[in-house]
Write a sequence for this structure.
């Protein structure tokens, strides 16, 4: 089943110079949360690719037909396509998109990483047990996790429910990413919201402790999880641009 793309959730591409930037959105979200950042980077002359991950930006029912292997496959395909058109590629990801960015960096020669409130660590075993109990009880969805935004009047276009089997697949896949954090050697910029109601700060803590490449962490003081459209949006944009300039474009 494939339904129409929701207005504003379309993928984004921009041709530019010989440095590519792959931009990856989060779980149950879509390109709309990352499009302002992608467009900002495109105006600076980067070649930018912001794909719509399978099952996202259409309907919850559509997402239920997808899993971690679909999202990672799409991320790798988008990276390989961009790498074939540019000299060097940086990868930027929000939330699950951050986990996918780490996944790509563990398998490709990524020029740089920018990880915005990334999910790279599976939840506690008791949470997994609770998830399995809900699935065994016949539930297919739970409440939505999207639109954790502090900025008044701004909301994220995201699904109004969270598919449980997709969440289970995500957590299983992230477990593999977590085990290989020390395989990441690309220079990384970690942007962490001081208050995040979706992804816990220890995801960033473990990144800092375990990746082998140089990593810089900057705290965002006035945004919740979806910092790319929150109060700190200009900070996220300028820090991302400057980091890519310094690490990849120099």
């Amino acid at each position: 089943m494939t339904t129409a793309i929701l207005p504003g959730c379309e993928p984004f591409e921009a041709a530019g110079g010989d440095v590519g930037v792959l931009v990856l959105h989060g779980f149950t979200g879509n390109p709309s949360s990352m499009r302002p950042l992608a467009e900002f980077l495109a105006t600076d002359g980067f070649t930018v690719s912001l794909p719509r991950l399978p099952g996202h930006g259409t309907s919850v029912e559509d997402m239920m037909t997808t899993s971690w292997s679909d999202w990672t496959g799409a991320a790798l395909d988008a990276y390989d396509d961009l790498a074939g058109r540019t000299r060097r590629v940086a990868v930027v990801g929000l939330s699950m998109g951050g986990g996918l960015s780490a996944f790509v960096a563990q398998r490709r020669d990524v020029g740089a990483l920018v990880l915005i409130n990334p999910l790279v660590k599976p939840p506690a075993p008791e949470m997994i047990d609770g998830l399995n109990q809900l699935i065994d009880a016949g539930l297919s969805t739970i409440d939505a996790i999207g639109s954790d935004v502090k900025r008044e009047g701004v909301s994220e276009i995201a699904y109004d429910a969270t598919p449980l089997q997709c969440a289970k697949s995500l957590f299983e896949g992230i477990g593999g990413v977590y085990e290989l954090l020390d395989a990441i050697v690309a220079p990384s910029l970690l942007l962490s919201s001081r208050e995040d109601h979706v992804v816990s700060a220890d995801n960033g803590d473990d990144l800092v402790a375990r990746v082998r490449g140089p990593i810089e962490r900057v705290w965002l003081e006035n945004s919740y999880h979806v910092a790319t459209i929150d109060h700190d949006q200009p900070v996220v944009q300028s820090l991302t641009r400057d980091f890519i300039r310094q690490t990849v474009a120099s």
The chain has a mean pLDDT of 96. Strands lie at 12-14, 19-24, 47-50, 88-94, 112-116, 141-143, 161-163, 188-193, 215-220. Helices lie at 35-43, 60-63, 68-83, 96-105, 125-136, 164-179, 202-210, 233-249. The radius of gyration is 17 Å.
